[in-house]
TrEMBL record, chain A:
The keyword Lyase does not apply. Residues 477-503 are annotated as: Disordered. The glycine cleavage system catalyzes the degradation of glycine. The P protein binds the alpha-amino group of glycine through its pyridoxal phosphate cofactor; CO(2) is released and the remaining methylamine moiety is then transferred to the lipoamide cofactor of the H protein. NCBIfam families: PRK04366.1 (NF003346). Residues 170-287 form the Aminotransferase class V domain. This is glycine dehydrogenase (aminomethyl-transferring). InterPro entries: Aminotrans_V_dom, GDC-P_C, GDC_P, PyrdxlP-dep_Trfase, PyrdxlP-dep_Trfase_major, PyrdxlP-dep_Trfase_small. Its EC number is 1.4.4.2. GO terms for biological process: glycine decarboxylation via glycine cleavage system. SUPFAM superfamilies: PLP-dependent transferases (SSF53383). Keywords: Oxidoreductase, Pyridoxal phosphate. It comes from Magnetospirillum aberrantis SpK. It catalyses: N(6)-[(R)-lipoyl]-L-lysyl-[glycine-cleavage complex H protein] + glycine + H(+) = N(6)-[(R)-S(8)-aminomethyldihydrolipoyl]-L-lysyl-[glycine-cleavage complex H protein] + CO2. Residues 364-462 form the Glycine dehydrogenase C-terminal domain.
UniProtKB/TrEMBL annotation, chain B:
Pfam families: GCV_H. GO terms for biological process: glycine decarboxylation via glycine cleavage system; protein lipoylation. It comes from Magnetospirillum aberrantis SpK. Residues 18-100 form the Lipoyl-binding domain. The modification N6-lipoyllysine is found at residue 59. InterPro entries: 2-oxoA_DH_lipoyl-BS, Biotin_lipoyl, GCV_H, GCV_H/Fam206, GCV_H_sub, Single_hybrid_motif. This is Glycine cleavage system H protein.
Length: 503, 124
């Protein structure tokens, strides 16, 4: 429970809100409906419900207030600065939201005849055209539903290529230590074994170690660029060349593509496949598990194996190819998703791209990198940057600045909440100790960043002065709930309310 | 009976041809509160340096690598129920698995206690 000194348990207008089941009171209603006429019991063959199912009875204002109060406890990008590194919490333009709500798009049914949805196909096709243009890649699979799904799609295309070329002995995948956890997971899903590649003390892939691990059984490498330390892999061309020389493919994790849009054509880096997190790079409200979209661009070699469905230009308009026999000689490895991909996210991404234009996209990635370097420059003397030199779209620090203070990265993050800031990403990437990863994105103003910097500096000074460990460990003090017991929550999660279990 | 250590912070205690493997006190301390452990099933083949088990804390999920090649004799089922054991007794009751060594010469590439302690001191 929140520790409060009020009689009500509320903290000013932050109301202590019970579960909706705890609010119910038998017989209370929102809408007065006449009793249903009696039903012939025999028609249910003895399956008639014997007891109420336990839904709460509430009045309409109770329901409205309950959900409004819950929504007020939420913190999102529309509430304030959200510097979570590796998540790219950028502003979601209202224009994109408006486009995604156009009745002509929202009210479509995926089973409508194709000739009645030419506009929707054009949305998919135009977005695909932009993604191919920006990356310099010849093909794109639009249907993967999110980043990891795109990884899996790309790897399946690679696997299909190898199986088709009598190289089904290639079943090992090289993944750098700093990779997103989804990389080894996607590889394992495809039946590959995963071989980790160490990093150098510059925070980049150890090219010599990678070369030593390449061999005739390697299917591909998976490299994120910029990587999870927020650094550009500056030996990427050498990596790609060695990979191709070994007969393997180069899968690029495009999670951080937002740092290089309009500046780097990934095709020029020797990439064979890369997913694009539309929801990060081209804006869409995300977090809490979705929605996302992970279209995967493919090289010439892999393009024939792209999954169904895809849009083609026919004599009389656009056509969605749904079956292998009508795919014009392609060898699609299958289908990765029901229907046609995350259409709502496609609309937002296309609206974002068209409203920004190619110059705007280039400026967005440039500003994202500039903002991250501004944080790095202003905080570099107070916190401890993990690696030397400028960063890309996110700035990585470790916990050396907290040494001997008794304060941990976690305590520091919790104290930041009391100051009105969502914390940075903590303890990721794993390759540095007590990581603090900050991604301001291009949409934050200098004033916001300065406000954040002042608070971080003040907290760091307080920790460094000593004697403040207990105060840090008591944070957060001003939230609806104080510090939660994460260990207990993970070891013995209580996921379901049961009647009579009210605390 | 002799105990060896890896640079990835696993220990292996060898008796005859069977080694008992766990993670070191340094490793549990670095991980923080352990909330989930997955140990290998008996009969699974392991290669030196390859994935053998999974340990997850509130901060991170990590692989536990096998210090040697061989076949799993037994996984410590108690850890799944009580992952906290890893924090309480990492180099005792919270062993992860027992492995029958297929190539005992691999032990020569590991560190003894003194060498490991010096290795850890160098990480601080």
């Amino acid at each position: 429970m929140a520790e409060t000194t009020t009689f009500s348990g509320n903290r000013a207008l932050q109301i202590e809100e019970p579960l909706i089941f705890e609010l119910g009171s038998a017989g209370r209603v929102g809408v007065d409906v006449a009793d249903a006429p009696p039903v012939d019991e025999d028609r249910l063959s003895g399956l008639r419900r014997k007891a109420p199912i336990g839904l709460p009875d509430l009045s309409e204002p109770q329901v409205v207030r309950h959900y409004t109060r819950l929504s007020q406890k939420n913190y999102g990008i529309d509430t304030g600065f959200y510097p979570l590194g590796s998540c790219t919490m950028k502003h979601n333009p209202r224009l994109s939201e408006k486009m995604a709500r156009l009745p002509g798009l929202v009210d479509l049914h995926p089973f409508q005849p194709q000739k009645t949805v030419q506009g929707a196909l054009e949305v998919i096709d135009t977005l695909a055209h932009w993604l191919k243009g920006l990356t310099g890649m010849p093909a794109v699979a639009m249907s993967p539903a999110a980043g990891a799904h795109g990884e899996w799609c790309g790897l399946m295309a690679i696997r299909a290529y190898h199986d088709d070329h009598g190289e089904n002995h290639r079943r090992r995948v090289l993944v750098p230590e700093s990779a997103h956890g989804t990389n080894p997971a996607s590889a394992a899903m495809c039946g590959y074994s995963v071989d980790p590649v160490p990093a150098t003390d510059r925070g980049r892939v150890d090219v010599a170690a990678l070369k030593a691990k390449l061999g005739p059984d390697v299917a591909c490498i998976m490299v994120t660029n910029p990587n999870t330390c927020g650094l550009f892999e500056d030996e990427i061309l050498e990596i790609a060349e060695a990979t191709h020389a070994a007969g393997a493919f180069f899968y690029c994790d495009g999670a951080n593509y937002n740092a290089i849009v309009g500046r780097v054509k990934v095709a020029d880096l020797g990439v064979d496949a890369m997913h694009i997190n539309l929801h990060k790079t081209f804006s869409t409200p995300h977090g809490g598990g979705g929605p996302g979209a992970g279209p995967t661009v493919l090289s010439e070699k892999l393009a024939p194996y792209a999954p169904l469905p895809f849009v083609v230009h026919d004599g009389d308009g656009l056509r969605m190819v749904e079956h292998p026999e009508s795919s014009g000689g392609a060898k699609p490895f299958g289908r990765v998703k029901g229907y046609h991909g995350q259409f709502g996210v496609f609309i937002r991404a296309l609206a974002y791209i068209l409203s920004m234009g190619s110059d705007g996209l280039r400026q967005a990635s440039s500003d994202a990198v500039l903002n991250a370097n501004y944080l790095l420059a202003r905080l570099g003397g107070t916190l401890t940057p993990s690696f030397e030199g400028p960063c890309m779209h996110e700035a990585l620090f470790d916990d050396r600045f907290l040494k001997d203070s008794g304060v941990t990265t976690l305590d520091f993050a919790k104290a930041l909440i009391d100051e009105g800031f969502h914390p940075m990403t903590m303890y990721f990437p794993l390759v540095v100790h007590g990581a603090l990863l900050m991604e301001p994105t291009e949409t934050e103003s200098k004033e916001t960043l300065d406000g954040y910097v002042e608070v971080v500096k003040a907290l760091a000074a307080k920790a460094a002065a000593g004697g403040a460990a207990d105060e840090f460990k008591a944070a957060p003090k001003y939230t609806p709930r104080r510090r939660l017991d994460e260990t207990q929550a993970a070891r013995s999660p209580v996921l379901r309310w049961k009647p009579g279990s009210n605390a | 009976m002799s105990i060896y250590f890896t640079k990835d912070h696993e220990w292996i205690n060898v008796e005859g041809n069977v080694g008992t493997v766990g993670i070191t006190d340094y490793a549990q301390h670095a991980l923080g509160d352990v909330v989930f452990v997955e140990v290998p099933e008996a009969g699974r083949g392991l290669t030196k340096g390859g994935d053998a088990a999974v340990v997850e804390s509130v901060k991170a999920a990590s692989e536990v690598y096998s210090p040697v090649s061989g076949t799993v004799v037994e996984g410590n089922a108690a850890l799944a129920e009580q992952p906290a054991m890893v924090n309480e007794d990492p180099e005792g009751a919270a062993w992860f698995f027992k492995v029958e060594l297929s190539n005992p010469a691999e032990l020569d590439e590991l560190m003894d206690r003194a060498a490991y302690d010096a290795f850890v001191a160098g990480l601080e």
